[in-house]
Amino acid sequence: MLDVSRLRVLVAVARTGSVTAAAKELHYSQPSVSHHLARLEAETGAKLVQRVGRGIRLTDAGRTLAERGAEILGRLDAAESELSAHVGLDQGRVRLAAFPSALGTFVPRAASLLAERHPGLRVSLTEAEPPEAVRMLRAGYVDVAVIFRYDPGAEEDDVRARRLLDEPSHLVTAKDSGPDLAAYADAEWIAGCDRCRQHLLEMCERAGFSPRVSFTTDDFVAVQALVAAGLGVTALPALALEAARNPDVRTVVLPDSTRYVLAATYGEPPEPPATAALLDALVESTGAGVHSLTVSS
């Protein structure tokens, strides 16, 4: 039988990359972390870590156990959360992962609503782009994942999604312009995360050109600063502009550029009470239903 505490130590070492960082994350001493690893090796009969210079790295067996251990710990944490929720909303816990512009806009409103209605309910928030948020959801690290899609018909296996809002993309430039992407076929372009970059490439392809991407960053504040400095143009979703707006850029809504924002859960219904309460708060914080979000230019 594997010791859960020692398994948690191995997972922390795999996630952080060192004994020192794992000790800091777990609030253990470094010798204590090393002791737990040694005991786990004795329990499993396998070499899990090896020394490299002044540090360590996981062996193949260590990586395999850490990956499975992360899934096990996630499910244990999820079970604890669900049991707490059944005790009562005023004594439970609910965990949410969301992409940055959602965390910068409607997620705090939802958390505030939840705190007002259920003061004893603990809410934890984690920043994660949609692919990572869905992985966390499936592993049991979070109860709800706020994600986005550009294809409203796309679905994740075993993941149920509630649509929160529709938001268009905006062409972002240093000077006033129209929504004609083709007018910027010869411009330098600034791209964002992998999904947003792919969406930009597809929009430009429909406009008849392939953009020359000179800068890439998923920091929407930095993107706008680059545009304001005259270093290129970009396309940003409405939430990014609502979260942080550079006064020196100009924006115009792009046609046929909708991004769909959803709240995803995993597992069979009904939702645990705390999860259901969070979903209701998210819907209310985005305007009590699906709507089109726009920002002024």
Automatic annotation (TrEMBL):
Keywords: DNA-binding, Transcription, Transcription regulation. Transmembrane segments: none annotated. InterPro entries: LysR_HTH_N (IPR000847), LysR_subst-bd (IPR005119), WH-like_DNA-bd_sf (IPR036388), WH_DNA-bd_sf (IPR036390). Pfam families: HTH_1, LysR_substrate. PROSITE patterns: HTH_LYSR (PS50931). Residues 2-59 form the HTH lysR-type domain. The keyword Cell division does not apply. Belongs to the LysR transcriptional regulatory family. This is LysR family transcriptional regulator. It comes from Actinoallomurus vinaceus.
